[in-house]
Amino acid sequence: MAETRWLDDHEQGAWRAYLRMNTVLGAALSRQMQTESMLSMQDFEVLVHLTDVDDARLRVSELARAMRWEKSRLSHHLSRMEKRGLIGREECSSDGRGAFIVLTPEGRAAIEAAAPSHVDAVRRHFFDVLTDDDVKALTSIAGRVIARVEATDTCPSE
User: Fold this and answer.
1) Domain boundaries, given as residue ranges, for the chain
2) Residues of the chain with pLDDT under 50
3) Does residue 68 contact residue 59 with C-beta atoms inside 8 Å?
4) Pairing of strands 57-59, 87-91
5) Which CATH architecture has domain 13-132?
């Protein structure tokens, strides 16, 4: 077994700063989303995935894979969203085992109402404090980390 490569002071500072940034930014965006739209960030993410596809419908397994959620967790969340009228379920005519999650008119109205203030908050809290070079560096860093994780980790829904 290989010896642990501990983080040096510089790496530990960067890692803890990243974790803290993720925590405070996520909390601020969640508060803004809940206060202004009565949606959770998880609701918003589901609605984003549905609006990103032409027919506003996805199989639960596709949605779970995209969100990297276990199917059971997603199923419970979707049930709550369905009770609120944000999404619906439709049987798949070609496959009796599966169902589609579909965006309802209420769900579309909710995301269309929430998106402008969410984007304003993302810009205010995040992009307005970054330079163009920062954004390019962050894009590069994120791409490399995502590629590494996805190459070595399996999605929990699979």
Assistant:
1) 13-132
2) 157-158
3) no
4) unpaired
5) Orthogonal Bundle (1.10)
